[in-house]
Amino acid sequence: MAGRSSLSCEVVLVRHAESVPPSPGRPDDPERPLTTAGSAAAELLARELAAMEPTAVVSSPYRRAVATVVPAATASGLEVTTRWELREWDSGLEPTPDYAVHYERSWADPDFARPGGESLRQLTARAMAAVDRLAEEHDGGVVLVGSHGTFVSRLLAGVEPGIDWPFSRDMPMPAVHRLRWPR
User: Does residue 27 have a pLDDT over 60?
Assistant: First the structure.
């Protein structure tokens, strides 16, 4: 791209800390808070994230993602801005105790989409485009990105071979993944 700086951006993906589980029979609530343990984990993580000297903190608008990165933003003297495109996967599936079977099916066929939902391939494209925009806006900086397990997994799957359903299923809360962007 002509005129583009040769710098790159460090993107620090932060999967949210432990949140209150979704209620079966109800849509996944963007207002679900962190558990007490999740809030404590976010506070503990703040020092590690602030040591990365972020230049921006951007998050999914979901309460649990924002709450995970707020302590690091505060420690860094930054505000958290939210972006809708950093939200969790729109699976089209209401919370259900057997969600793993449904998620595994989607990972086996990334083009599969439930009515009203997005496929995992669509999520990967959304995640890649969102991080491309952030990297361009924060060229040469370090951006903390608060998001969700499936979002983070699908972004990583777009750039690293071998990211699969077990990786996503077993990702801890919180989890931190550092990337240099563009790749």
Answer: no
